[in-house]
Amino acid sequence: MASSPSRAAASSRYGTGREALLRAAVHVVAHKGLRGMTYRAVAEEAGVNNSLVAHHFGSRDALIAAALGWASEQSIAASRLQEAAQQEDTLTEALMALLLAEPELQVFQYEMILEARRRPELAGPVSELYERYVSALAEGLEAFGVGGSVRVVARALFAALDGLVLQFLAGVDREEIAAALEEVHRVIILRRDRPAGSAGF
User: Fold this and answer.
1) Integer Cα distance of 118 and 102 in angstroms
2) What's the structural domain count of the chain?
3) Element (H, E) at 118
4) Integer Cα distance of 33 and 26 in angstroms
5) What pTM, to 2 d.p., does this model score?
6) Within this chain, do residues 34 and 69 fall inside the same structural domain, yes or no?
């Protein structure tokens, strides 16, 4: 039986295999919310049969957890948090490029964070999401020369980045977000230049 034109288009857009299903799941949640994510919706978006989704993930919850992990990996890789923290003029450009290129990744993750308030079983995967981001930023800060409690600094800085991303998605002016991101980077530089053990942030 030949594939329909819509299914062929979906397959070419997302590729094939497990990653295509994860991309499709992210798209569905970003546009319909978690309640709109069914095997059927993901399969239609990816251009495959429903049974393929079940074959790869076994359950809807397993698909949700896998999609959350995949989305954070994609975001961290695209934003280059580890290297961006080490270089002048890189952090703002990298994060703005990510926001402009794949806003669905960010929307999906915020949807999952909000849903975790209603579904305790998502609390663990959402906590892991934040830990991956903080760890990536901490590695970059440490390589950049930031001393002291690097992980605490990384968590505080990521909280600022996280809030700015949410503001961008809410429609705050792009130039204002970029200016704020540059300020975050200046804080990173100041932290590196401060002698170890000095008081204050």
Assistant:
1) 26
2) 2
3) none
4) 10
5) 0.77
6) no
Which of 58, 79, 95 is a domain's end point?
Answer: 58
C-alpha to C-alpha distance for 188 and 201, rounded to whole angstroms = 10
Per-residue pLDDT of the chain (201 residues; tens, 9 = 90+): 444 445 444 544 555 689 999 999 999 999 999 999 999 999 999 999 888 999 999 999 899 999 999 998 888 887 776 666 556 556 677 777 767 768 899 999 999 999 999 888 889 989 999 999 899 888 888 888 887 889 998 999 889 989 998 999 999 999 999 899 888 888 877 777 654 455 444
Cα dihedral 94, 96, 99, 102 sign: negative
CA distance 112 to 130: 12
Q: Are residues 179 and 149 in the same domain?
A: yes
The answer on 76 and 39 residing in a single domain is no
Q: How many residues in total does the chain contain? A: 201
- Which residues span the domain enclosing 50? 1-58
Distance CA 29, CA 107 (A): 8
Q: Is residue 172 in a domain? A: yes
DSSP element (H, E) containing 169: helix 150-169
The dihedral of CA 132, 185, 26, 4: what is its sign?
Answer: negative
Shared domain check, 68 and 163: yes
